Amino acid sequence: MAEVRRARVGRIPLGAARRLLVLLWVVLLCGGCTADRSGDAAETSTPQPAASAVTPAPPAPPAPSSSASSAACEDCIGIVLTGDLLVHPQLWEQAAEDAAVTGKPPLDFEPLLAGQRPYLSAGTLGICHLETSVADPEGPFSGYPQFNVPPQIVLAAKEVGYDACTTASNHSMDWGPEGVERTLAALDAAGLGHTGSYASAADAEEALILDQPEAKVAVIEATYGLNGLVPDQPWRVDMLDAPTMIAKARAAREQGADIVVAALHAGDEYASVPNAQQTEVAHALADSGEVDFIYGHHTHSVLPIEKYNGTWIVYGLGNGVTELSPTYEVNNEGLMVRARLSRDDAGTWSVSGLDWLPSLIVAGPYRWCSLAPDQPAGACSSPEQEAAVRERTRSVVESLGAAGAGARQWELFTEGPGR
After folding, report:
1. CA-based nearest residue to 215, from 355, 118, 340
2. Less CB within 10 Å around the terminal CB: N or C of the chain?
3. pTM of the model
């Protein structure tokens, strides 16, 4: 069996944040009552017995893996997800303008994504979807219909807090196998995990497992199609098929995963409801018992959230970033989601909470902007446009009963520590 790829991330688990805050408060309160340490230097200089005269203590046994523990933990993993990173020429023109200001030539996409940073920091893991191939740093660059975008978008994703990106999409083969390999090499160089498309048959057999202190989180992903292009190898890109995805989820658990997250690149563009393929595959994954959480992208529009058979399904996250469409307002909107996972006394993981917020792409300059309820009106666009986007997003997200099932709007700046 191939060695499992893992990305280690040093963020504090959600449940630990509250404990850390309490500890810091205690330290501050007790700062003035610390015992006198004036004798420490003298004690340190006192001669110690020779090492040969001391019987060494036996080495302590290694601490057990926390992911193997059955101790309960509440909201101790938070997975933050966004939709397509769809980079058009307008966005790399903006990145050139921003680079002239930030001093990070030739292109700096970090200001475009910077609004996502506090939300990604409030999770344990951040996962993006890289819709397109990336080019060599010197290009050539191209937009629709066959994308080949500047690789600096990958560096910006890492800078703002993403840990991994899915890569299977209808544009995966736009520049052939060389484009796939170039894209994966750029992700590797940036330190981002990836799954969905592969540089080798051996890579295609490996599970993407993001190793966290509390649990090992596996991500699987597949696309509905490749815009009519035929891959050079059957393993090059994961194609949407429920039995195959279930087998991949089962294999990931055999390779050590405690939690399995599945992503579907599918649906009808600019729709407000999932299509039959999305629903059938998502329900099959939920019914299998092998997948803990399911989400999707591709439609360039926000789709509903559903709790089906005890499993949360976010059918469509819309766009993470894209150019502004003068035709489809929904193209300019997106959804950011945080799935909070807990472990019960039996060691079983489940999604204990689901937080979502609307987002909007604005121009002049191009920026991703949060429309969470705790953001001031008019911070992104006109108050009227923001209100329309918020209501449109809410009505779609909640159309399959998400609110009644417990999904809530994410108010990061008013929710307090540990959330």
Report:
1. 340
2. N
3. 0.85
